[in-house]
Every structure is written in C-alpha cells, then in structure tokens.
C-alpha cells in the first residue's frame, strides 16, 4: 500500500498534515488539498468524504490535507488558520506578498518531501477551496510551474497579483500546469465574477484550463463539484500503466 508519511519525524514543520494511505502497492502521484480561511485539513477532507459517501481516494495517489498555521488575520481581526493575510476582499485588493511568499516556502517543503519520496513534480496536483484555492494558484503559477495541475474552488486573485507578474515574465509559451476552476453562481462571499475574471486573466497569459460554473451554489462545495474534481484528478494523474 502507499505508505503514510510520518510528519512528526519529518523535517517539514508544517501544521499537522493529514495524509491518507491508499490501497495500491506504490504511490506514483500526490494531491495536496488546501482548506479555506479558518478551516482545517480535516474539515475539507471530511467534506469530500461526506459528499461522496466515501473517501476521495485512488490506489496510486496520496492525498495530503495540511492545516494552515494560526496567524493574525486582518479581515477577521483575530488569529485564524489561514494561508496568508488579507486586508481586503475584491479584485482591487492589496496582496500581502510577504505572507504569501512565506507560506509558499513552507508548502514548498511539503512538495519537496513528496519529490524526495519518489513522486516527481509533474505527478503532483495542488488544489484548494476559497483562500486555499488562491494559494494553490500561487503555487502552480508563481512558484512551481512544473506541477501536474491546479484546482481552484470558489477562489480568486487580486488584479495586481504576483501570479500574473510571474506569468508575464515567463511568457505565454512557457510551460504551466493545466487549471480546473470551479465557482458557484450564487457565491456571495467570493463573488462569481471575481473567479471568472481571475480565470480570464490567467488564460490570457497562457494558462490552459477550464472554468466550471455551478448553478445554485453559494460559497461551498456540493456533490456535482466534488465528483467533477475526482474525475479531473483521475484524468491528470492516471495510473502508470495508462501513461
């Protein structure tokens, strides 16, 4: 079976990742899934499991659900488990580049640990919900363009995001991970139009991807979305004999 990594003895000093052991003889791919602001890795894992009525799992893929560190979060006025700080919402907001970069370094250690375990970068998908999806966009398009793919659910980037700057510097012909973005049409926290604008900007800069609109969905996940995520992961990270 795919072995569970003992993060307590690892050099990665991240926020108690939850790692799901799989049923196959060998892990050949990994998915790192990031929760939304104020949540935990257990929360998003349980949401997938409750909606699917089973674990989101594949025999050859290791799923990792880290929890963000507790840090001062300006929007909440107190400390929350968040991937980076935000002082405002909306496309014209101001990106807190220092906190984004610091978290990219920590999550990069988690990615590097997967590579050291034998999983190459082009067999690792990063994804997330809300702020977790935004962090996944940073990882895939600003810091680790060699990744296999990126999933964003109810997520957006500021108009002046460092992600866009990085893509512009590399040029449209540079290799970028394929993108799958989901957004509820009734989202009243991270507005649908913010997610759509983010996708349009990313694709204008050379990212290949698809934006999936979910009717009647607010700032949350539902069964159709989660099933689609599972299908997309299976396509991006097939078993080795199907490569």
Automatic annotation (TrEMBL):
For this protein, the Enzyme Commission number is 3.1.2.22
Looking up InterPro entries in the UniProt record yields: AB_hydrolase_fold (IPR029058), LYPA1-2/EST-like (IPR050565), PLipase/COase/thioEstase (IPR003140)
Q: Does the keyword Transcription regulation apply?
A: no
Pfam families per the UniProt record, alphabetical: Abhydrolase_2
| Keywords, sorted A to Z | Hydrolase
User: Can you give the residue ranges of the Phospholipase/carboxylesterase/thioesterase domain?
Assistant: 20-236
The keyword RNA-binding is annotated on this UniProt entry: no
Give GO terms: molecular function aspect only.
Answer: carboxylic ester hydrolase activity; palmitoyl-(protein) hydrolase activity
What GO CC terms are in its UniProt record?
cytoplasm
Please report which protein family the annotation says this sequence is part of: Belongs to the AB hydrolase superfamily. AB hydrolase 2 family.
PANTHER family assigned to the protein according to its UniProt record, in alphabetical order: LYSOPHOSPHOLIPASE-LIKE PROTEIN 1, LYSOPHOSPHOLIPASE-RELATED
Q: What protein name is recorded for this chain? A: palmitoyl-protein hydrolase
Instruction: List the source organism.
Output: Littorina saxatilis
């Amino acid at each position: 079976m795919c072995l569970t990594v003992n993060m307590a003895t690892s050099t990665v000093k991240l926020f108690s990742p939850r790692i799901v052991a799989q049923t196959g003889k060998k892990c050949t791919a990994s998915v790192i899934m990031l929760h939304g602001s104020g949540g935990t890795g257990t929360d998003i894992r349980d949401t997938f499991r409750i909606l699917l009525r089973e674990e989101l799992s594949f025999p050859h893929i290791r799923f990792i659900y880290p929890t963000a560190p507790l840090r001062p979060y300006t929007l909440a006025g107190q400390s929350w488990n968040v991937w980076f700080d935000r002082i405002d919402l909306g496309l014209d907001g101001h990106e807190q580049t220092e906190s984004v970069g610091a978290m990219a370094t920590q999550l990069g250690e988690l990615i590097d640990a997967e590579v050291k375990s034998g999983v190459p970068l082009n067999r690792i998908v990063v994804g997330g919900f809300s702020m977790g999806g935004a962090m996944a966009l940073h990882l895939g398009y600003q810091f680790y363009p060699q990744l296999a793919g990126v999933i964003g659910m109810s997520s957006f980037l500021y108009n002046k995001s460092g992600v866009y700057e990085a893509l512009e510097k590399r040029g449209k012909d540079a290799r970028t991970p394929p993108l799958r973005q989901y957004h509820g049409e009734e989202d009243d926290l991270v507005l649908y139009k913010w997610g759509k604008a983010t996708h349009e900007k990313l694709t204008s800069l050379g990212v290949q991807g698809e934006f999936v609109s979910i009717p009647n969905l607010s700032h949350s996940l539902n069964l159709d979305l989660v099933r689609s995520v599972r299908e997309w992961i299976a396509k991006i990270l097939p078993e080795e004999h199907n490569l």
